[in-house]
Amino acid sequence: MDGLSRRNILLAGGALGALGTLGAASPVSARSLWTWSPGDSVAGAGAGVDPEWVWDDEVDRLIASVIDRGDVAKVNEQLRTWTRNDQAAPAGLPQDVREFMDKARQLPSWADRDKLETAAEFNKTRGFYLNVLNGIGGGMLSTAIPREARAVYYSKGGADMEDRVAKTSILGFSVGDLNAYRADGDCVVQAVKTRMVHAAVRHLLPTSPAWSQVSGGQKIPISQADILVTWHSLATYARGKLLEWKVPVSPAESDAYLHLWQVTVHMLGVQDQYIPKTWDAANAQSKQVLDPILTSTNEGVELTDILLGQLAEQTSPGGIDRPLCNALARYLVGDRVADMDRIPQEPFWEKTIATVWPKLVAFREGLLPLPLVPPLAWTVDEAARQYILAFLTKGKGTAIEIPDTNRPS
Ligand code: HEM
């Protein structure tokens, strides 16, 4: 942990430590009883087994074998040539990997091309909000999700957050792309690669003594429940914020946006019996799996500090600086999560953003004339734009690859 992060933790530690939320004492396994009904899923039925105890067996076995037999470099080399949705898995892959990928790249039978097209258009028209919400908001939420923060921190990618953010943004960008699920798009490709990366993490992370110490008794990371948690921190969270900000969203757009994420999480390996059928079902599931587990961890605090530092750095000079960045992050996730992440309070910018953001939204939606938008709003707007630009260009020139080791200690 570098000195700056340690200092931030110590500075914030007094207040939060008193609440019993600091560090190793974090209740990483605090969860509600799983009562969510498979009747509310896209499958409409299911055994109702708690997804806490379900992983992704077939790909988990496959990738464990790829790692154990020393095939990771060979597979990654082939994966680099796999770039389009309509492309069969490369012939040079080991047969078992190719067979899996050719199955895994099929869209579910319930995927609806028209809805995916509507979602793509929606992503285009609402790209500004969605990128801010998924990029900054989702990022800050993820570091308050203990299992995710710790899995990321102790896996290979945790040692190089610059690269990790770049790689993660590849899927984020792909989901928001106009051709996401079209033949020439790459959402299927990135989702299937991510599914294999997650399988690798399930095989590797249990051998990390540092992770095992803080896993709260979880023996294998990235359960189906964990993936759903992250899904809500992206899809359900973003949709909730759009409503809160009164961004006009038609019922067809809302439905299509849900569909896009339903298909994506299916492609990431989540069983249909756990994928919410409606936004109401999603909200109910989110309340059960996401809300109770949000808390502060040393790893999450350090990752937040790195992420915010990168964000401020990328978008300077002449743009966003760290206090504005902190305040924007606090605005997006709210005080409770921001305090968990130890994002410093920035009274001036927080007040400014709370005042100007609704005006910016109203202006963008044609509900407020330009002269009524306060000049400082454009500083905030520019900061968000610069961030989006950096977020969207980061992934270029990098590729999602299967790790063969944990974070070097
Ligand atoms: C890797 C997305 C859920 C932990 C990745 C990557 C993407 C991604 C795009 C590849 C980039 C990279 O290699 O760094 C997602 C999405 C999720 C999800 C969209 C859910 C909707 C989770 C959860 C956890 C997790 C729940 C842990 C609890 C990791 C780790 C890596 C990874 C540790 C890679 C580690 C390494 O670089 O060695 N994820 N993820 N992910 N994900 Fe996820």
Explain what you see.
By secondary structure, the chain is mostly helical. Helix content is 60%, strand content 0%. It contains 17 helices and no strands. Helix 5 crosses helix 12. The N and C termini lie close together (11 Å). The site of protoporphyrin IX containing FE has 25 residues, from helix 7, helix 8, helix 9 and helix 11. Protoporphyrin IX containing FE (HEM) binds next to helix 7, helix 8, helix 9 and helix 11.
Q: Considering DSSP H and I runs of 4 or more, what fraction of the residues is helical? A: 55-70%
Radius of gyration: 21 Å
List all distinct small molecules, including ions and cofactors, that are bound in this structure. protoporphyrin IX containing FE
Provide the residue-averaged pLDDT.
88
Which stretches of 5+ consecutive residues score pLDDT under 50?
1-28
Number of helices: 17
Oligomerization category of the chains in this entry = single chain
Please provide the count of β strands.
0
Sheet of most strands: none
What general form does the structure show? globular
Give a concise summary.
This is DUF2236 domain-containing protein. It contains 17 helices and no strands. The protein is mostly helical and 409 residues long.
Task: Give the topology.
Layout: H1 3-18, H2 57-68, H3 72-79, H4 95-104, H5 113-125, H6 127-142, H7 146-154, H8 161-176, H9 187-204, H10 209-214, H11 224-244, H12 251-267, H13 279-289, H14 298-314, H15 322-340, H16 347-364, H17 376-394
